[in-house]
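Methods: example folding runs. The two proteins below were folded one after another, and each record is reproduced exactly as written to the output file, sequence line first and structure-token line second.
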Amino acid sequence: MRNDFKLLDRQSAEDLQAYLLRAKRLDQNGLVRFRAFGRVLAAYVAPIFAGSLMDDGPTVLGLRTTELAEESEVDAVVPIANILDRLAKLLADSPKHYVLELPDSLKTPWAGISPPRTGWEPLVSIPEPELTALATAGIAEVAETLPEAVGGPIAARIRGEIWGRQMKFGSRIPTGAAFVAAGLGFLTENELVEVYQAQGWVRISSEHGHVLAKAATGPVLD
């Protein structure tokens, strides 16, 4: 497979940069998985991941797609920070063609997770203000619950318990999906956001991107 791809234009490069800047704010050491087969590039990030494929904690992925200038075949996992550096240089140079060269691919457990590509069924529609309120409340609870000195596995467990609860929409959507949708800039004011389900997964889809999450196993949020 190739280790580069050609973005359609400067606007595409700026949109990818904005998306990855938001993803990095959610996870300073985060990775992005680029997948392209043809002229559509999919960029996956994992702001919430349990840490193991066998863990029952929440797994919430962000997905944004963009059109490429030419057909490519890419499947690589690379540091977000590295790609942001390369995008910044690319945009500063203002080249005729926006070709993004990738570093060597890394391995991460969440890249082995493959949400369904077909079989999605409509589940529910959720008004944007409700998702934003859930994200805001969860962020506040994480801040109040976690002592500043606590880190590592304990912090991850506490965040997992908060973001792994189910929303009150007759579904198994984890509240962490609202956090990721808001944090990645996928929500538009007063938008009606569509939710789908398939094979143990749920998907929040807006005009700006998708959030894919393993169905929640935690209690329903009061």
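Second run, written to the same file directly after the first:
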Amino acid sequence: MNRGYAALVLALPLLTGCVTVAEFRKVQRDVIDLKRNAAKGGEGAPRERVADLAVRLDALEQENELLNGRLEVAEHRAEEALREARAARQESALGAVDSEAAAPGEGAELGSDGDGNTMLSEELAAYKAARSLWSSSDWEACVDRLGEFLQTYPSSVYADDAAYWRADCYFQQGNYKKAILRFDDVVARYPNGNKAADALYREGEALLRLGPAYNTAARKAFERVLNEYPDSDRAVEAKQQIDLL
């Protein structure tokens, strides 16, 4: 198992503390059930019963808000841990490539990541081979090879790049509806990746290519670039697109 991923798995119980999703959902259900009971109790029920239900409802709603806040903090910390693990793995991959370049020899193409995992140099070679088809404008073959890469290395540090260029292949073919779906998938799967802002912007471009009827959807895509990736290079271009619409 990759060290970064293992560390993340071990850290999750610490990130979430004593709160579990099941506990949170139970409190939510209790709040809903108690509200229903309070509504029913209001019809001819003793004042003491109604007052008791109101007190219990207030307590459960406060607990619900507390758990919700703790879960949001835990999710934020988990996202940070994922980003750190991903960065560590990418740094390790680049280090392995540099080591192979510095000391070529028999078996150097395979390399080793020290954990018995698939050799990073093979992963990089597979990505470069698939990406080269984009450079040669062989769009159909590019779609197939990048798709194979994503199936073989779904957790690769190059996965978001592969998914992005695969979406662009559909765009270059003029298959804009397919490109929109694939660009949107890049944003959904890799929201913190280096291609997220590009993919969201290109999704807007593809929507524009479908005609004026899709201008509203395109505007929303460009607005998301500004709101979600305001510091990206694409933010300036997105603002320009919005001004033109």
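Comment on the second run: The chain is about 75% helix and 0% strand.
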